[in-house]
Amino acid sequence: MNFEEQVKLAIKGNEKAFENLMDACKEGLYRTAFAYVKNEQDAVDIFQETVYKAYISIDKLKEAKYFKTWITKILINNAINFINKNKKIVYTTEDFSNSIDSYEGNSIDEKLDIMSSIDKLEDKYKSVIILKYFQDLTITEISEVLNYPVGTVKTYLNKALSKLRVFMNEEII
């Protein structure tokens, strides 16, 4: 059974289909949540809140092909709400390093530098980078999630990458 068929079954109330969808999406959603909050437990909480909200409102999803976009929007809104509620977030290196081990890089210091540099970006650039490189979304999918034109997403991605290069060079020096 393909992904869209699973979504259609979930919309009709099939709990097993919804569970299968969550299993298929959980890693990408968790990585996205973690990229926003930099804390394992908070990312898990955001993910769980996203699953709950998706479960109670999946019948409102109009087109099955937009499921990933729809659930990613829910997750991003939950993450932003969480951050706004908790303006002062404490980052711990241990939580941070354990969760980013799966990302490519030569050393943990490199990974921390990259994540630190992403944090320095403006929110609009940070969101595009997170969706592109943590969720592996296409430019078109990012434009749907963020409600930006495709050209704007491309511009933000290029500007974000340029700023990251500058940040990374500053940290090396």
UniProtKB/TrEMBL annotation:
PANTHER family per record: RNA POLYMERASE ECF-TYPE SIGMA FACTO, RNA POLYMERASE SIGMA FACTOR
Protein's recorded name: Sigma-70 family RNA polymerase sigma factor
InterPro entries xref list: RNA_pol_sigma-70-like, RNA_pol_sigma-70_dom, RNA_pol_sigma-V, RNA_pol_sigma70_r2, RNA_pol_sigma70_r4_t2, RNA_pol_sigma_r2, RNA_pol_sigma_r3/r4-like, WH-like_DNA-bd_sf
Signal peptide: none
Record keyword GTP-binding present: no
Keyword annotations: Sigma factor, Transcription, Transcription regulation
Pfam families the record matches: Sigma70_r2, Sigma70_r4_2
Domain RNA polymerase sigma-70 region: residue ranges: 23-88
Family: Belongs to the sigma-70 factor family. ECF subfamily.
Superkingdom, natural source: Bacteria
Any coiled-coil regions, as ranges: none
